[in-house]
Specification:
Elements lengths: L4 H21 L22 E8 L5 E6 L3 H12 L7 E8 L4
Antiparallel strand pairs: 1-2, 1-3
């Protein structure tokens, strides 16, 4: 004999009720809070100053002169190169100004 349609509906309703009851028992998941966006510190640009540097052949700085004293730097370079010593050269040097 064929089962009646009413029993199938009752079984489906019972399964739906059981499913809803199971979901109600499950803990509710909380949404993760959005992290606060931190403001980045603005980097302060370092102030630089130009100098003339006298360097040896091994790139060691021998002397430093103010930027407006290029002639003195070249004289010092020639003095250090006299007598068959290793040649020296003059080059621009940038250094950071430290403010207190």
């Amino acid at each position: 004999m064929a089962k009646s349609r009413g029993s199938n509906l009752k079984r489906a309703r019972d399964e739906a009720d059981a499913f809803e009851a199971k979901e109600a028992e499950a803990p509710v998941k909380k949404k993760a809070k959005a992290k606060r966006k931190t403001k980045k510190k603005v980097a302060v640009e370092a102030r630089m100053k130009l100098y003339w540097g006298v360097f040896s052949q091994s790139l060691k700085r021998v002397a430093v002169f103010e930027f407006d004293q290029k002639e003195e730097a070249e004289k010092r370079c020639k003095e250090l190169g006299k007598g068959g010593k290793s040649p020296h050269f003059v080059q621009k040097v940038k250094e950071e100004i430290v403010e207190e």
